[in-house]
Specification:
The complex is a heterodimer of chains A (94) and B (308). Chain A is of the alpha+beta class and 94 residues long. Helix content of chain A is 43%, strand content 28%. In chain B, α5 crosses α6. The chains are: A alpha+beta (94), B alpha+beta (308).
């Protein structure tokens, strides 16, 4: 379960590319291709630069999107869990 | 399992160069998709089998074709290969490097190198079974995938049907309906270019579909000659109760195409180039999602360009 302090990183075998504001993600090992919305792309961009906690990701998204913090704090962990389940992002073992 | 381990006794002894003992002195040129693929070093048996499988060379294209791509064929020892009782295996292992790809499959090894130029080599212990067991064709399909991309085109796992206005391409994973749509259209008297694999090229005049000699389960009974056809529609196929045609976002379109661009789509060194090509293709001829109801009602939608 993703919590505020959970540290996340982009999976090494997930390569992505921004196409028209959405993201195409290729999972090399599984041979899968996924499409992410603009928030998913931004999350991957942030995690490519550094491993971040879920709360740090919320902080970054609050600054960039016209959505209130409370909504993001509710929605982002669930979305991050979807990305983990899809094999695009993983929780870093501390 | 590591590269080649299920096929080769000594994967670490994989040839590093295009060298070895050729099977013979025969050369056979296969013309298609505006290119010439020259098989060099064949035995007389192999050469005869290639000519029988691919038919006589196509008439020369109107414009000068790109330089021929030579594929050299060398002998390998049957002792180089794992003998686990399998009579045949269609799959093969691929190993990607920045400037080469290695192939290991049932009774063959292959290399595709692109420095200083694109060239290919195949090693096999099979003489008469080089063609009958699809060793040559499997390798050629992969070579064509990379060669086309290098030349401004793309290979797509797809069915293509042509009428007087041009070619309509239907792509999707196994089970999407490519063979069904091919059978229906052949029964209706339309020309099926292929139910398995087609080449697309971006030209100044538009996107063209090049018929290939790889026809899948449908075989070569589709009618029509090898050649180019202007592409009229590019459809990601789905099965459903009613025919529907709808647009796709650029990302969804490119992702769908990427999933059906075989041999290259999992090569991390060529993926960016492939995605750029697919983006350009979608910009010229936008991909649409076609729900196919296992009948020919979809033709009305395609001919009218009717999008839901």
């Amino acid at each position: 379960m993703i919590e505020a302090g959970t540290i996340l990183k982009k999976c090494a075998d997930a390569r992505y590319r921004n196409v028209g504001g959405e993201g195409i993600v290729v999972r090399q090992t599984a041979g899968e291709v996924l499409v992410l919305n603009d928030v998913g792309v931004r999350v991957l961009e942030l995690l490519e630069a550094a491993d971040l906690s879920a709360s740090a990701l919320v902080d970054a998204l609050v600054a960039e999107y016209a959505v209130d913090r409370a909504t993001l704090e509710q929605d982002v962990p669930a979305y991050l869990q979807e990305l983990v389940d899809a094999g695009v992002v993983e929780c870093r073992v501390v | 399992m590591s590269f080649g381990a299920s096929f080769l006794r000594h994967p670490d002894l994989f040839p590093a160069r295009h060298s070895g003992e050729p099977w013979g002195d025969e050369r056979v040129a296969i013309h298609f998709a505006g290119n010439v693929y020259v098989w060099d070093g064949l035995s007389a048996t192999q050469a005869a089998a290639v000519r029988e499988r691919f038919g006589p060379p196509c008439p020369p294209p109107a414009e000068t074709p790109a330089a021929a791509l030579e594929i050299r064929v060398f002998r390998a020892s049957v002792e180089d290969f794992v003998d686990d009782g399998r009579i045949w295996a269609f799959d093969f292992d691929l190993d990607y490097a920045p400037d080469a790809i290695r192939f290991a499959g049932f009774r063959f090894l292959g290399r595709l190198d692109w420095t200083p130029r694109l060239r290919a080599a195949l090693w096999t212990p099979e003489d008469s079974r080089l063609v009958s067991h699809a060793i040559l064709e499997n390798f050629l399909r992969a070579v064509v995938g990379y060669h086309l991309l290098e030349q401004g085109g793309v290979l797509l796992h797809s069915a293509a049907v042509a009428d007087a206005s041009g070619a309509y391409l239907f792509f999707g994973p196994s089970g999407a309906g490519k063979s069904t749509i091919s059978r229906l259209n052949h029964a209706a008297g339309r020309m099926v270019l292929s139910d398995d694999m087609n080449a697309l090229r971006l030209t100044p005049e538009g996107v063209v579909v090049e018929r290939l000699p790889f026809a899948g389960d449908f075989g070569q009974k589709g009618g029509g000659a090898v050649g180019s056809y202007p592409a009229r529609a590019l459809c990601r196929l789905h099965k459903g109760p009613e025919p529907v045609l709808r647009p796709l976002s650029p990302a969804a379109a490119v992702a769908a195409l990427l999933g059906c661009a075989p041999f290259v789509n999992q090569n991390p060194y060529w993926q960016d180039k492939l995605i750029e090509r697919l983006q350009a293709l979608n910009a010229r001829l936008p991909v649409r999602a076609l729900t196919f109801a296992l009948d020919d009602r979809f033709w009305d939608l395609l001919h009218r360009g009717e999008i839901s």
